[in-house]
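Structure tokens please, single chain.
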Amino acid sequence: MVEIKTDAALDAMREAGRVVADALDAVRRAAGVGVSLRELDEVARAVLRAAGAGSPFLGYRPGFASTPFPAVICTSVNDAVVHGIPTGYRLRDGDLVSIDCGARVGGWTGDAAVSFVVGTARPADTALIETTERALRAGIEAAVVGARIGDISHAVGSVGRAAGYGIPADFGGHGVGRGMHEDPHVPNDGRPGRGMRLRHGMVLAIEPMFLAGGRDDYRTGSDGWTLLTVDGTRAAHAEHTVAVTDDGPRILTLP
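Here you go.
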């Protein structure tokens, strides 16, 4: 079931989204050569704590996971696509890092992600990140009243396919509200004009994830959480929580 949010609920979700944006900004500023992924998680925890926010990530255990998620952010490095668990790994020059973060404020949730390179960036990594961000913008622009879920999927997928990137079929965007993952599912590739029609008050996490090697398949790491490219090539992930409104898409996870 898809919950249609009131305008007051959208305003409340904006507060949660602002905390997410602040946490992502703090983590990005803290990331540097020699900094551990666990230290980045501590940075995010401090931001959530200062805002009086809870974490929808910490303790989360979907059906595919053998253990609850142990952190407030996902830290996916290089060939990790999404769901990376913060460990003692210390960042190296040239690492491509994707950070996914959520916050819960007043019973409402925000969810967003960003990818960046630590230190010196390879041109191929810069292109991958820029394309992923461009796909996110295209998906957001398609999130208008009267359009369909497939229009968002097509907008995202067209950008990734044109660049020759792979798109993992089983993972994509989703509804957001009181829960972090709600209906509907928002694939990152698809046909326009298909799927549920968008209405004012729907809230969606739009999150392209592209694989540089061009293959759509992936594998799950030994931790039971991290999704990895099968060919060892790099991946990028970008995400915003977006409200569909009569005035156009409203991004709820901006600073």
